[in-house]
Write a structure and sequence with these properties.
heterodimer, A: 314 residues, alpha/beta, Rossmann fold, eight-stranded mixed β-sheet, 12 helices, 8 strands, 13% strand, B: 107 residues, alpha+beta, Alpha-Beta Plaits, two-stranded antiparallel ribbon, 3 helices, 4 strands, 17% strand
Amino acid sequence: MNIKQLAEKIGNNSWFAPGHRLCAGCNAGIIAKFVLNFAQFKGYKVITVLATGCLEVATTIFPYTSWKTAYMHNAFENAAATASGIGAALKSLKKKGLLKEDYKIVVFGGDGGTYDIGLQSLSGALERKHEFVYICYDNEAYMNTGIQRSSATPMLASTTTTPSGKVSKGKQQPRKDLIAIAAAHDVYAAQTSVSHLQDFWKKLEKAFNDQPAVLNVLSPCTRGWYFPPDQGIKIAKLAVETNYWPLYEVDHGRWILNYEPKQRKPIIEWLKTQGRFKHLLQPTQENEKLIAQLQEMVDKRFEYIKKLARATSE
Amino acid sequence: MQIKPGLPWKELPLGGVIDVPGSSVEFHTGDWRSSRPVIDLNKCTGCMLCWLNCPDNAIKIKNGKVEIDYDHCKGCGLCASVCPVKAISMRREALEEEERHGSKHKP
């Protein structure tokens, strides 16, 4: 991606209009804008399908819409199913000669609409090999309804349904691995971060040429993670630098690690930036043990991806 | 058709369809802001990183340089945090107001 070329081509006519009501400093807005900019740059015609979530409710408040693409509203659980239906309808119209142009279908879902509630429809659509690009902006909890835990919430994070206190230290279970689940359908699946837009661009290129595809993008949430609104990109970057959020892709069973930091930063550096891990920062023995446990988990996961990448490199 | 708030319900389009793409541009989110980004164009190199990273699309391009659309900028400060040459500084709106009117801003 050449940013200047992109800026020259898109200019002030982005397909994602300002005036939406996402929180100040919300990274989901950057992701939506970036994906649409990509499609616009490549000259694709796009139909956007949104699962209910922050992005959906904030960009389509009646009587306004922030989308300049064809747009379809969905419930939490059926975004991928709707995308399949649109794909089938386009195919049928083409067969009858009523439609000449090619359309690309882009689905946006949050982690609630992807990891938990919409997983069945996503799995079904991936299995049927309907053509669409699924973008999951992962803010690691149900931010839209008030920061409840989701299966993407990391271990030990405090949310409103797993509050930290005397009895509990936040969520007790580790997070779900969406990319491995998507990759099990023999499709293109990749994980990227809002802080690494060059990497994101490359993955979008692959995803649009190899549909169906699933992209999981880390999207720090200023309200749910408790950090000042200008820190989002830095925190996403730190998540990559600490190996908490490895950038990798699975191309039809072939695992590729895209980025390995020269010197891995300790996970505590990342925890320190967010209020949802505040309860881990008091220097007690228990906390040190928990952080060591978390660090071990992160390192193990990274080693696991590296091993898979080596094993499938042929 | 353009749907304005306060339109009687009988005149709304069937199904509440919004047929003006990107109509949210008429909703001004600029009044959410508590600090405003100010660009020092002498320092700006035109790298467009702020344009790329603005979640509100509130950074506009004019003659190869960037310009802030204060009607929509929510003042999150992401542009200042990604600027590699620190050309963008965040200033408190209240202070700006005070300077403009020469009087103490009432909270």
